[in-house]
Amino acid sequence: MVIVAAGAIAFVRRDHKPSHPDQWDARVLDIVHFDEQHRGLKFKHPVAVDFLTPDQYADRTRTADSQLSDKDKKQLQNEAGQLRALGLMTGDVDLLSAENNLADAGTAAFYDPDTDRVSVRGTDMTVELKVTLAHELTHALQDQYFDIGSDREKKFTTSGESEAFRALVEGDATRIEDEYVQSLSSDQQSEYFDSNSASVDKSQQQLTDVPVSLQALMAAPYIYGPPFTEILDADGKQKQVDDAFKNPPVDDEQEIDPRQFLNKNDPITVDKPPLPAGVKDESDSGDFGETAWYLMLAERIPPLQALQAADGWGGDAYVSYEQDGKTCIDLAWRGDTDKDRDEMQTALDAWTAAMPPGTATDQSDGDLLRVHSCDPGKDSNITINGRSLDALQVIGVRSYLMLSAMRDGGLNADDAFSFGECVVEKVPFDVLVQVNTSQDNPPQSFFDALNQCQH
Fold it and tell me: Cα separations (Å) of 428 from 303, 391, 394, 423?
């Protein structure tokens, strides 16, 4: 899908390779050695690390309105219309401001592969800052061996490929970050968790005006990327993770359901929907992706039903355009099986009925399901449940259960996924969210489901 907020990796074009320092900043040397040992790769050269004040960090992450072209501004308007047409946003939201807030308040640091620099918000080397650097320096290490910058991005032919690669990159870095946290003393861990909790609370307060759907699209790679890379490591050790960087997933389904990647099940090609009669030009088009379908459905129908429908994703395409002064979007979806099609048809019927009257329609067209929806307007007051972030936690729980079944139970990938799927189907949605977001012990219903699904 076209709407992707800024994350912990920045991509800018460069005309020449950046210079790099002759030696490491002494403050990060111990983290460099840790990353080398745990990632199984040696840095080819040092990387610059810029310790910035909050204002300096904001200057690097935010885009001024004056920097946008008329085409850029039109694209933002189109994206806002798409989000409202999909039931993921309501009102007159300033998307530039929202994406700036995500890039600034929503991150603590970023590695720019096209300038070969790490920018971090903070000038004091706290435990929390060290953990952040363990993540960002892993990106630098990835870049030196696998190229994660704009040259690599240009090779992707779909947004699905780009988003899946980003999840791989973030998941791998989070894996090393977690190992760094585990290496800390108990006192340091307590200090980190307290500090990080306060930082998360502050960030959430600063993001209250950012649509939850945008926050979810940004968070998705960090939720299903880490267990995906852990599953690769459990299946084939570090070599399989390295191989994935060389031949990465081609869509988000392969990380939401890692079996699809391990079994090399590629997406089905779906033709772009035709423009309606009388419409000459499209605003944009491409592939939509399982994540976008899941979030769209989960805002209107029960999230577990939405996930079951989205899991049947086989391929899709969309086109966006203006008609009668409104931004409209047409989507075509194809499932892997007839059962998948029927489940998605039921879900779409419920979703369409839950949208404002006259906004959306869905229909069956042979093997394809088609959706047509137009922006109901800035003043339509669409009801937003705001559960996109929570909905993603279900994927995280299922993937970590799959990982545990492989690593601790010795199950193969197919059986391990079935175990995770079984638990998710038996546990209430709010409990699944709690399991993946709270440090409190899960309720007994979660353990009951574990026991039932083990037999």
Answer: 10, 12, 10, 10
- Is 394 in contact with 446 (CB distance < 8 Å)? no
| Spatial CB neighbours of 135, under 8 Å, sequence gap ≥ 6 | 8, 109, 173, 174, 176, 177
Q: Long-range contact list for 154-159, CB < 8 A, 24+ apart? A: 158/250, 158/251, 158/286, 158/287, 159/1, 159/2, 159/4, 159/286, 159/287, 159/289
Task: Determine the average pLDDT of the residues in 39-59.
Answer: 96
State how far the Cα of 263 lies from the Cα of 413, in Å rounded to an integer. Answer: 10
β-sheet bridge partners, residue 370: 332, 363
The 10s digit of each residue's pLDDT in 360-410 is: 999 999 999 999 999 999 888 788 888 999 999 999 999 999 999 999 999
Phi-psi region of 233 (alpha: psi -120 to 50; beta: other; left: phi over 0): alpha
Tokens of 275: 């423009």
Distance of CA 380 to the CA centre of its chain: 28
| 134 conformational bin, left if phi > 0, alpha if psi -120 to 50, beta if neither | alpha
Distances (CA, A) of 414 to 206, 245, 305, 402, 419: 41, 22, 21, 9, 9
Q: Distance between terminal CA atoms of the chain?
A: 39
Q: Half-sphere exposure (CA, 13 Å, Cβ side) for 452? A: 13
